[in-house]
Amino acid sequence: MKIAISGKGGVGKTTIMALLAREFKRLGKQVLVIDADPSPHMAETLGLRPEGVTPLAEMTRLLAERAEKTPGSPFYQLNPQVNDLLKDYMLEENGYKLMVLGAIQTADGGCACPENHVLRKMLKKMLLEADDVVLLDMEAGVEHLGRGTVAGVDHLLIVVIPSQSSIRTALKIKKLADEVQISNVAFVGNLVQDEADKVFLTEGLGVEPIACFPDSRGIRTAERNGQAVVAIDEDLENAPALLAEKLTMSG
Question: 225: exposed, middle or buried (C-beta count within 10 Å: 0-12, 13-18, 19+)?
Fold first, then answer.
């Protein structure tokens, strides 16, 4: 099962992805987490050594070798031999597998740059071949949908908090996801304090979130102290287990 997560910046998508990874691990799944955020911090959230994995986007020489521009074409062709990257640049620790794609920083930018092309192709390859559960933490906003980096996922989760701006962004992501024909798209509420927040989200989104994570003091304390979120001992109203169950049941 391949699951991507997105949402407006600051809504807690990395935290929810980490808690979901912990829940799937508890269920005996083999969990591969791919941090595709340009400001990656999934390693710290999972309690892994951030120095233990090298972001692919920093490997400029490798990218140049793997993506060659075709004469007369604005696009880059990817050398198909990328299997070595799956083992050489993946950190395996504490029962998790982690790969960090890292920041993309080029002068020309745009969807045709070699970094974007390599990351998209490699991500698609991993999503198609990875066993069990692959969790993909996307960058904030909607740009990744335009680049097609979520192609092939089984589920797209859109994290939304009880605010008008978060709902607007979530609905825009949903619209674009429908346009690129992602089959299963669902909203996940976060920082939900009470029933009024749940009603606000449901009315604003036009559909009830499949899970709602509470506004947790334990999570805030862990993040402020630089501790792994997955180490907190709090049931979080059973939201991680409920979310994992619904995803498993739907496919």
Answer: exposed
Q: What are the Cα distances from residue 15, in Å, to 43, 51, 92? A: 11, 20, 19
The number of folded domains in the chain is 1
Contact, 126 vs 99, CB < 8 A? Answer: yes
209: nearest Cα among 14, 35, 7, 1: 7
CB 185 within 8 A of CB 177: yes
Residues 94, 47 contacting (CB under 8 angstroms): yes
21-72 per-position pLDDT tens digit: 999 999 999 898 988 776 778 888 999 877 767 776 666 566 666 666 566 6
Residue 14 CB coordination number (10 Å): 26
Q: Tell me phi and psi for residue 108, to 5 degrees.
A: -85, -30
Domain that holds residue 129: 2-250
- What's the CATH number where 216 sits? 3.40.50.300
- Lookup: tokens for 165: 């701006």
Q: Which residue has the tokens 């997105």?
A: 6
SS (HEC) of 180-200:
CCCCEEEEEEEEECCHHHHHH
DSSP-derived 3-state class of residue 122:
helix
